[in-house]
Amino acid sequence: MDEKRVIKKLVTVMQGANLKKAQELFKREGKRLYELNHPQIPKLYAYFEDNNDFYLVQEFIEGDTLFDEVWQKGRFSEGKIKLFLRELLPVLDYLHKQKILHRDIKPENIMRRVSTNNYESGKTAELILIDFGASKQEVPP
């Protein structure tokens, strides 16, 4: 197992009917994420519940969010923003075809994955869409 993984703990303070609803939503989200297969979405390896806390075991993405980049480098040019949008289109198209609405696309939920696949600089970057907590499966009318 060479791939780095991360465990995200989602702590709940709910009880009774609210906890039951949270469990249902978590299981539905976990199943949905587990079935997604796109290079711009972190792979979900497992999801489970323990002692009313929920856990996601996901692929670790090395890099910064676009929010971090803006904070460090300042505003981006219109051309750079257009490039970001073009880079995001494949994952948005994939989600659209899967009938999934992310519902929380913002700089904090877009990461630039750094990898060593570029022969010239030794590094490449790919935009990754993260945090599907607010996502929803479109239901037919």
Automatic annotation (TrEMBL):
Name this polypeptide is given: non-specific serine/threonine protein kinase
PROSITE patterns linked to this entry: PROTEIN_KINASE_DOM
Pfam families membership: Pkinase
Enzymatic reactions: L-threonyl-[protein] + ATP = O-phospho-L-threonyl-[protein] + ADP + H(+); L-seryl-[protein] + ATP = O-phospho-L-seryl-[protein] + ADP + H(+)
Its EC number(s): 2.7.11.1
Domain Protein kinase: from-to ranges: 1-141
UniProt xrefs under Gene3D superfamilies: Transferase(Phosphotransferase) domain 1
PANTHER family on file: SERINE/THREONINE PROTEIN KINASE, SERINE_THREONINE KINASE LIKE DOMAIN CONTAINING 1
SMART domains, alphabetized: S_TKc
Keywords from the UniProt entry: ATP-binding, Kinase, Nucleotide-binding, Serine/threonine-protein kinase, Transferase
GO molecular function: ATP binding; protein serine kinase activity; protein serine/threonine kinase activity
Alphabetical list of InterPro entries matching this protein: Kinase-like_dom_sf (IPR011009), Prot_kinase_dom (IPR000719)
